[in-house]
C-alpha cells in the first residue's frame, strides 16, 4: 500500500518539505538496475505549510495520486517546466485530477504569447493518442500561462520567481520561496562548458536546495548532446558559485543505473554535504 503523501512530510505546521515521486528523464525504466533510485518520470510533491505544489506530471504523478489523502477537497498548483511527453504523460492517470471537488491550477511559462499549457495537454489527450479528452479531468480548474522571468504569488506567503532556461523548445526554471527558505527547480536545461548560465545563477542564489537536471555526466557528453539537458557536475558547479546549500541531482538518464548513481552520491557527500541523488520516495526538509 502506498504511503499517505500528505501525512508523511507535512506533519509540522509551516514546514517547507518535498518528496520525489518520479526522478527519471526521457522514458520510464523498469528493470532490476533501477530499483533503488526508481524509474518513473518527473514528479515532485512540495509542501509549503499546508499548501501543495506539484512539479511536473510525469509517470510519478500516478503513484502520488494514489497516495494522496482525498478525504477532503484538494487545492493545489501544478507547475510544468516543459510540455514534453515525459513531463506530462502521467497526467491522464492522475486520479485526483478527475475529482471535480478538487481544484488544481496548472502553470507554465515556456510557451510565449502564442501557446498555452492547456492546449499542449489537450493535444496529448486527443484521439488516437489517448481515448479520454482533457475536459474529463474535472479537477483542472484554472490555467496560469505566464512568461518565463515573471514573479508571482500562487498563494499568500508563497513567492515564485521564474527564469527562461537553455532549451531549444523553451523551458522554465522555478524558485519557490516560503518561510524564509528557497527551493530551486532547474530541469531540462542545457549548458555550455565553462560558460555558467547567468539566468540559473540568479535563480538559485543562496537556495536551501536546488533540484537540478542531471540527465548526462560530463565525461559522457559528446558535441551537441547537451541540447536541453545538463550534468550533475554542472549543477554542482552552479550551486557552489551561487552559494546554494544543497543540490538534488534529478532527471536521471534511463541508462544510468543504481551502481553509477550511488557513486555520484558519494561524490556529492564529499563536495556539498547534505546533497542527494534524487530517488523515488525520498523526502527532504528545507
Please tell me the overall pLDDT: 93
Query: What is the SS-derived class?
Result: alpha/beta
How do the strands line up in the largest sheet?
6-5-4-3-2-1-14
Number of E strands:
14
The value of Rg in angstroms is 18 Å
Tell me the β content.
25-35%
From N to C, what is the helix and strand string?
Answer: HEEEHEHEHEEEEEHEHEHEE
Distance between the termini: 27 Å
Helix content: 10-25%
CATH superfamily: Ribonuclease Z/Hydroxyacylglutathione hydrolase-like
Tally of discrete structural domains = 1
Biggest sheet character: 7 strands, mixed
CATH topology: Metallo-beta-lactamase, Chain A
Contiguous uncertain segments of 5+ residues: none
Classified by CATH, the class is: Alpha Beta
Overall geometric form: globular
Number of helices: 7
CATH architectural arrangement: 4-Layer Sandwich
Which keywords apply here?
single chain; 286 residues; Metallo-beta-lactamase, Chain A; 7-stranded mixed β-sheet; 20% helix; globular
Describe this structure in words.
It is built from seven helices and 14 strands. The chain is α/β, with parallel strands linked by helices. The protein has one domain: 4-Layer Sandwich (Metallo-beta-lactamase, Chain A), CATH 3.60.15.10. A hairpin with a 2-residue loop joins strand 7 and strand 8.
What is the structure about, briefly put?
The chain is α/β, with parallel strands linked by helices.
Strand and helix map with partners:
Layout: H1 5-9, E1 16-22, E2 43-48, E3 51-55, H2 61-67, E4 75-80, H3 85-88, E5 103-108, H4 117-124, E6 140-145, E7 151-155, E8 158-164, E9 172-178, E10 181-186, H5 198-204, E11 209-213, H6 232-242, E12 247-250, H7 258-271, E13 276-277, E14 283-285
Parallel strand pairs: 3-4, 4-5, 5-6, 10-11, 11-12, 12-13
Antiparallel strand pairs: 1-2, 1-14, 2-3, 7-8, 8-9, 9-10
Helix pairs in contact: 5-6
